[in-house]
Amino acid sequence: MTRDSYFKSFILVLIAGIIWSFGVIPVRHLINSEIYVFEYLFFRGLTTALIITVFLFFREGLIFYKNFFKMGFSGYVGSFFLTLTFIGFIFSISKTTVAVTLFMLATIPFIAALLGYLILGEILKRTTLIAMLIATIGVFVMIYNDFNSGSVAGALFGFLAAFGFASYTIAIRWNLETPKFTTVLIAGILCAFFSILMLEFSLQSFEKMPIQNVFLSMLHGLMVSLGFILYTFGAKHLPSAELTFLTLLEIVGGVFWVWTPFFGINETPSLLIILGGMIIILAIIYYGYSFDKKVKKI
What tens digit of pLDDT does each residue of 50-102 get? Predict the structure, then answer.
């Protein structure tokens, strides 16, 4: 791997994190988000699948459908875990604050580092383990109030989303020949299918969902798909831990956007959330500082 390809991958994944950071804005502007979770998941998943399909059509032509036959075990595993990420994120952010959800997602690089070592044999350094410990302390500080307020479910769903995304990253790096864009497409379809099933069991109807929520769901699907297109291009040249580490800009940006009056959300994090977040950021800084700067082919 050349330094040029490494740098391009670095930039692509960094931009993906910035795009994803804006995802909290449409979610927070939903009308009664806790009521329309499954409808939201349906439209966001369907939009993501459609955009990836259009992208593949223009990139590969009509033969893009052949990618479905090349998925392999790792591809379908990646789709499954990415579906868990989609579901876990919306459930988390509808049950707790944006700060708690996003800082739970900050554990992704540490989960990916551990899984990358166990499954792919990627090097797990002592400094990584120390960073994981620091981040874990930060997470417990951050969700302390949630245990007392009864919204711990939001933090747990956030961790589910983090584990799912880390596992998805491992899956697409497991076999570099796996059609990675098709993996995202299938995850969008699974998310929409899951939503339909849950709506059938809950006897709810799409007709009741406000049109504003539909457009916001589709907008978020656009952000998700664009981010994954860039993330997938960068996945080939970066180790799992470093790949997920660069997306942490989503965490910083997300908390900032909901705090900024410009977007009309004004969600101010509590002192413990700020303290826990600072501890996690300290772990991220320590972890980033310990990166091996040598460019190596994985």
Answer: 999 999 998 888 888 888 888 888 889 999 999 999 899 888 877 777 667 77
* Residue type (1 letter), 280: I
Distance CA 231, CA 14 (A): 8
Under DSSP, the state recorded for 11 is: H
- Residue 2: the pLDDT is 59
Number of CB atoms found within 10 A of residue 147's CB: 11
DSSP code per residue over 254-289: HHHHHHSGGGT---PPPHHHHHHHHHHHHHHHHHHH
Kind plus residue range of the DSSP H or E element containing 241: helix 240-246
Report how far residue 104's alpha carbon sits from residue 158's, in angstroms, rounded to the nearest whole number: 5
Closest by CA to 215, choosing from 20, 39, 90, 56, is 39
- Count of alpha carbons within 13 angstroms of residue 140, beta-carbon side: 6
pLDDT digits (tens, 9 = 90+) for 222-247: 999 999 899 888 877 777 777 777 77
pLDDT at 297: 39
Q: What is the DSSP letter of 67?
A: G
The pLDDT, as a whole number, for residue 294 is 43
pLDDT of residue 22 exceeding 60:
yes
Residues in the chain: 298
Helix orientation angle between 98-105 and 126-142, rounded to the nearest 10 degrees: 160
> What was the pLDDT predicted at 273?
73
Residue 125 three-state SS:
coil
Listed residue (199, 216, 219) closest to 208, CA to CA: 199
Q: Are 249 and 75 in contact (CB under 8 A)?
A: no
Query: Under a CB-based contact definition with an 8 Å cutoff, are residues 275 and 141 in contact?
Result: yes
> Would you call 98 helix, strand, or coil by DSSP?
helix
Number of Cβ atoms within 10 Å of the Cβ of 128? 21
Q: Is the pLDDT of residue 290 over 80?
A: no
